[in-house]
């Protein structure tokens, strides 16, 4: 196995872009993988393409249209509005059933073909939107399952797992890509690049994190 190579699950958003540049600092070769699952805002795929092209990262976009068919939600249906706040005692309607399970499984197949087991994903248990597939216990469980399923040693790496959004901004700043992440990524559930719509849960989390980053680190 080649240990100086890694594959990054890459959406073109704040977290995955921060992880991409984190990986570029640590691995000789970095490959980015995005997914077309029929999301409403294909602009995120354009964003991912642009960043990879600009920074010379090998990039794959895999077709996962079946996920759209199986899991209708506010990120895949124009007639479902994104919850502005997380509902109490239930998952937000922006949760896509099985998304991280499938994404990481397909990325693992590609990673093995590329001769590496290093898989990097930007999930976070400390600062997430109520998604069960962002939890550390899920990642550890899937890591074991992938190893067993392909008789291969995978290492799912989660640089953001135990930090909040303010420290994710701090990581981007430390990596020298703060302006890139602030202006060139797309995190907004309504498909607006940069600062986004300012109203969806993702934008609120991003904005509050940025303000806390500035306060915490005197920026």
TrEMBL record:
SUPFAM superfamilies: Adenine nucleotide alpha hydrolases-like. Keywords: ATP-binding, Ligase, Metal-binding, Nucleotide-binding, Queuosine biosynthesis, Zinc. Zn(2+) binds at residues 188, 197, 200, 203. GO terms for biological process: tRNA queuosine(34) biosynthetic process. Pfam families: QueC. The keyword Cell cycle does not apply. This is 7-cyano-7-deazaguanine synthase. It comes from Clostridium thermobutyricum. The lineage of its organism: Bacteria, Bacillati, Bacillota, Clostridia, Eubacteriales.
